[in-house]
Write a structure and sequence with these properties.
Structural class: mainly beta
Strand content: 35-45%
Radius of gyration: 17 Å
Low-confidence stretches: 10-23
Mean pLDDT: 76
Helix content: under 10%
Oligomer: single chain
Distance between the termini: 28 Å
Order of helices and strands: EEEEEEEHEEEEE
Shape: globular
């Protein structure tokens, strides 16, 4: 899946969409540039973007903020079926590029939140390496979280990540449409 000139293209046999049905969330995450021998040659800020594709899977890209037009998307493992997505990271609001700073490690905590079109529950996928490997789609601890709206994923300076949902049914412990915030990483 690629995005170019505002158009999303999925695979070589799919036609591009000029008005793609995607929900997007983005956040800045630090990632070092490396050479083929694995030696770090520079530090820069990277933009990570998550979208729901036509296949309802979550697709992500890692790109430079200066090169958004050439972002290339890859599917997040697990084939989650989603109707909306949220993306967030821990750490301070401003990106940190110094690997010796504890805030750099904190901003590597990334969480994707997805509302399933099948059961309208929140599913989460977590990463502790800046979104390059994922732990798998699961409900948050404490059980399912039904939602009527896209999740909001927010981070805190210490590396914690929180998910907020609009409670999506009339069962306890919350009233319908009450905004519920929960620590997820």
């Amino acid at each position: 899946m690629t995005m170019s000139n505002g158009r999303v293209t999925i695979g070589p046999y799919w036609s591009p969409q000029t008005q793609p049905r995607v929900f997007t969330a983005a956040t800045y995450i630090h990632a070092p540039l490396t050479t083929n021998d694995g030696v770090s040659v520079a530090h820069e800020v990277e933009l990570m973007d998550a979208i729901v594709g036509r296949d309802r899977n979550i697709w992500i890209s890692h790109t430079s903020p200066d090169n958004l037009i050439n972002a290339t998307y890859t599917a997040v493992p697990g084939n989650a079926q989603c109707e909306s997505v949220g993306l967030g990271r821990g750490g301070p609001e401003q990106p940190v590029t110094d690997r010796n700073n504890p805030a750099w490690r904190a901003q590597r905590n990334v969480t994707l939140g997805c509302i399933s079109p099948n059961d309208h529950q929140l599913y989460l996928n977590r990463s502790t390496d800046g979104g390059y490997t994922w732990q798998g789609w699961n409900h948050s601890t404490g059980g399912p979280s039904p939602s009527d709206a896209a999740p909001a994923i927010e981070g805190a300076p210490g590396g914690e990540v929180f998910a907020s949902v609009s409670w999506g049914n009339d069962t306890a412990p919350f009233s319908r449409h009450m905004v519920v915030n929960k620590r997820v990483l």
